[in-house]
Amino acid sequence: MSTATVPPAAPAPAPSRRTQALIALLDYAEPGFRLSLGGVRYADYVELLHARTAAGRAGVKIAFDRGEMEIMVVGATHERLKKIVALLIETWITETGGGYVPSGGMTHLRADMEQGFEPDECYYIQNWAKVAGTRGIDFTKDPPPDLAVEIEVSRTVLNRLPIYSAFKIPEVWRYNGSRLAVLLLQPDGSYRESSVSRAMPALPLGEVTGLLALADDVSLDFAAITRRLRAWARALPAPAPTN
């Protein structure tokens, strides 16, 4: 009886010198570091994403928009603010009987559009049932997240809103540590600030900024913050059922 031998997989090609130099630069980059580059090929962007992962650079975010690339190193303040925004969203949905599927900071890629980005957090809320249990999301077929979160404690060079618009993200939250801006996608592809969340219309946005400020209270750890957010959400009137 003969047996077939599966040939070994070909080794991945070594990263280009430019990619290796960028990875080496990140060894010395401090939190808040940003680097903007122009004239970058989409293939080079994807190569850098893989090299970043292979090098274990978990605190590095990379955005790409048709030749323009921005690299950002996040720090403790950024991560703390990201966590409390996520905690508020998840607590409110859970305590008010809603449903969601979190997708964290997953990399959104579209080779056909030559664009990509990594939000700080993103959520399927209205469309959670369409992606629940999915191991991989294909943005050419699957719906985009209903809500994306961006923490902006340092000034960005690359305007990421056109990328979000191209991916048809209906709602983007931008939080800088003192102000939350809720931006809704318009029919013309632009974003407009709103006082009402499209993903969570019953959420009292007027109370949210004060709750997010709990992250700056040195007397509270996140277990205490979680308990406060749960108590707040449970005390709210039940959201009206949606059709």
From TrEMBL:
Pfam families: Uma2. InterPro entries: Nuclease_put_TT1808, Uma2. Residues 57-205 form the Putative restriction endonuclease domain. Signal peptide: none annotated. This is Putative restriction endonuclease domain-containing protein.
